[in-house]
Design goal:
Elements (H helix, E strand, L loop, with lengths): L2 H18 L17 E4 L11 H5 L2 H7 L4 E4 L10 H13 L12 E6 L1 H11 L16 E7 L16 H6 L4 H7 L12 E7 L4 H6 L11 H4 L9 E4 L8 H5 L19 H11 L9 E2 L9 E8 L11 E6 L4 E3 L8 E7 L1 E9 L2 E9 L4 E6 L7 E4 L14 E5 L23 E4 L2 E2 L1 E6 L2 E5 L6 E9 L2 E9 L5 E2 L12 E3 L5 E2 L11 E7 L4 E3 L5 E3 L4 E4 L2 E2 L1 E7 L7 E6 L7 E10 L2 E2 L3 E5 L1
Parallel strand pairs: 1-2, 1-3, 3-4, 4-5, 5-6, 8-14
Antiparallel strand pairs: 6-7, 8-11, 9-10, 9-12, 12-13, 15-16, 16-20, 17-18, 17-21, 19-20, 21-22, 23-26, 24-25, 24-26, 26-32, 27-28, 29-30, 29-33, 31-32, 33-34, 33-35
Helix pairs in contact: 4-5
Length: 607
Amino acid sequence: MTKSIHKCFLTGLLAAMAARGQLIPPGTPIPHTAKPPVVFLNGYQADCTSADFAGTFGAADQVLQANGEASVFFNNCTAPGKPTIEELGAAFGTFLGGLKYDDGQPVTTVDAVAHSMGGLILRSYLSGKQPNAAAFQPPPATKIRKAVFLATPHFGAGVASLFGLDQQAKEMASGNPFLFDLATWNQGAEDLRGVDPLALIGNGGLGGQLATGVPGFDDGVVALTSGSVNFVLPGRTRVLPFCHLPGGGLIALAGLCSASAKGIANIQSATDPQAVAITSFLNGTTGWQSAGTAAEADPFLSKNGGLDVETHSNADAVLQMDSASATSASGTSKDLNLPTKTAAYSDLFPSGALTLKTTAGSTQTTGDLALAPGVYKALTLKTGPIIGRVYPAASAVFPLSVAPGQFVAIYGDALAGSTATAASINYPTQLADTQVTVNGTAAQLYYVAPAQIDAIIPDGAPGLVRLTVQNTAGSHTVNVLVEAAVPAIFTQNTSGSGPASAENASNNYALVTGSAPLHGGDYLALFLTGLGATTKRGDGLDWANQQPTVTIAGRPCAVAYAGRAPGYAGLDQINCQVPTGLTADPAAQVVVYSGQRASNAATLAVQ
């Protein structure tokens, strides 16, 4: 070998090694760059002996390195013995806890890209799903900023039995109670703990179209309705002409995708549409909005939704269903699938008004529903009291959580104020004459009506609690996530937006209005709820243990006091000094921050 040939050979070899070396090996410190590292989670592996990053994600690590992001890989095959998805979720949490930068600092924030079952592992981790039914221990801090779901079967896959007969495959099968639990773990809903989501799903399947007669029904494995994340946030699902996996193999042999199909997670170039979408979304730019087609414009998703239904007794016990059906306002009727008797499902039902009917022994339950397109709706059908949402009384918040000592409104509508305008049960909610308990402790009630209860969350440690309403018509219990603080500003019109409920302490505590604005140097008294636990100090005031900050028009309002409003349980007050030099504005934005939570944005008139 000549010297020049030898040099070219080494150069090419080193380049090839560098190309393969973009992925940070397990246990290796991660370069501390300006962008969070990206953690990839692979999907179900029938044969773990050959599972690796490139086999699922192709050259995605190289694409992200060119974008200034380091990539790490959570290979679910490293957990021995084909554990449950719940156990893989716990293992993923341990994996995140072990990540460190090359300067020795722990990694506190990552983005995630998950394929297929990997998305369920991520969701199981976020909710703290336990192996027991309907049991959760959510981690205090998620560490996840953004998540991209690639063909994740959020509500199952009808062909999961083709993957295998182990517990992972069973949990991914449509109608499995595990999936219903994930979809309803927090106030009967799933909010991903506030993680910013994007779903990329494929409509290049063949088998689903043959079975349903509906073009573009699935990616060969996952129906579009099951892969959509519109149940969390609208406008975050994009449809691409791909299949679940690259062509060939079992899916092609089964006729579910063509032999030449492109897999949605198999990235080969930075110009691949899914690569463009991922890098754009993680960078906070708008390029992802041009990838494929929006769910709202897709010919299938724009007209259809999905259903996942449980029936409970009026005392909130899960019932074994003998039958379940849905009937649209136009007369279209369908028997829902009942693979496990406890959860009935359909991947395909026309959006719009419909009536659900279930039979469980001698118990027959009916409910009217407005099913939005592009959404898979999980819901509990029951008589007696039912809880739709538990919001701070001042304003709806997202993600769904409350604080110790917070003044809350318990709504009976099954989707009151939801961010995903999916569905709303219209049968009587029967909240009147109700007791409310939180982990068995009675909550102080201020207002009780058939569709709303105003109460105070008892003091206690943050975490997931069980909130129950009970009256002579029955009972209903939901999980409610309690955080250290969830500030919510009261507004004068009670809507959670517009002029804040605030007084000018420097002007005889006059209500702040356009005709009585604040001036620089004035002391503002702002009324809110959700500052969390308090401690009484020597001045006799109950100060918030976690002190907040306040901004007016983006500038800090120096806090002099933050805690309970004297003499009013559940009501908080912040006194702060208005910054000088503000531009006159009848609607300057005021926001309260405490820990990782920001309040609703209200307004103040400033002069």
